[in-house]
């Protein structure tokens, strides 16, 4: 597979359309529809988190529907990465099984390459009306009134959402400190070859 990557300041970014399905909640009894996906690694580049969508659609663009993973016998768990000092997590990980996911599958981001975001105003998925423990999932997004931020060095920056999410026990929003988004200097976006 040919990788087309762009370097922005100290961050190398590539766009992917290649994901592994983790869970479709069909058959769980939950009142909202959702699918959870893990971006596939590309070369030396690693995903920064799992992706959640309010749909059963195949985000790979395939027409054939995936199997109904909501009724699968294999359990699915959600994990929150614990970043090393100087790094942050951009969201939680959807993982097949109860065992801890491989720490090299999803990477954390250097904290100077991110800013505080927010959680969407409403949860996009929860376990209400299912027999599962109360849990909800909230999309992480840039702060709506300002996707353009000014850094401490007075340079303009733009914050980006990646489709990441945070889950929490219950139905109230997660702690705001868990909502982090990628931030890039505007100059690096303009001067990209």
Automatic annotation (TrEMBL):
<protein>
    <submittedName>
        <fullName>Vacuolar protein sorting-associated protein 62 domain-containing protein</fullName>
    </submittedName>
</protein>
<dbReference type="Pfam" id="PF06101">
    <property type="entry name" value="Vps62"/>
</dbReference>
<dbReference type="InterPro" id="IPR009291">
    <property type="entry name" value="Vps62"/>
</dbReference>
């Amino acid at each position: 597979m040919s990788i087309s990557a762009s370097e922005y300041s100290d961050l190398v970014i590539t766009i992917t359309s290649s994901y592994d399905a983790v869970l479709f909640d069909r058959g769980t009894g939950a009142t909202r529809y959702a699918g959870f996906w893990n971006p596939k690694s590309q070369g030396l580049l690693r995903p920064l988190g799992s992706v959640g969508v309010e749909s059963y659609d195949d985000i790979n663009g395939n027409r054939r529907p995936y199997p109904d993973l909501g009724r699968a016998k294999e359990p699915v768990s959600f994990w929150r990465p614990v970043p090393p000092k100087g790094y942050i997590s951009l969201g939680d990980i959807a993982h097949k099984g109860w065992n801890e996911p491989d720490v090299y599958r999803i990477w954390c981001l250097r904290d100077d390459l991110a800013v505080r975001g927010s959680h969407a105003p409403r949860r996009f998925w929860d376990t209400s009306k299912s027999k599962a423990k109360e849990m909800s999932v909230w999309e992480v997004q840039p702060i709506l009134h300002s996707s353009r931020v000014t850094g401490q060095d007075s340079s303009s920056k733009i914050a980006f959402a990646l489709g990441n999410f945070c889950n929490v026990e219950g139905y109230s929003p997660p702690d705001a400190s868990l909502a982090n988004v990628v931030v890039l200097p505007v100059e690096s976006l303009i001067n990209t070859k």
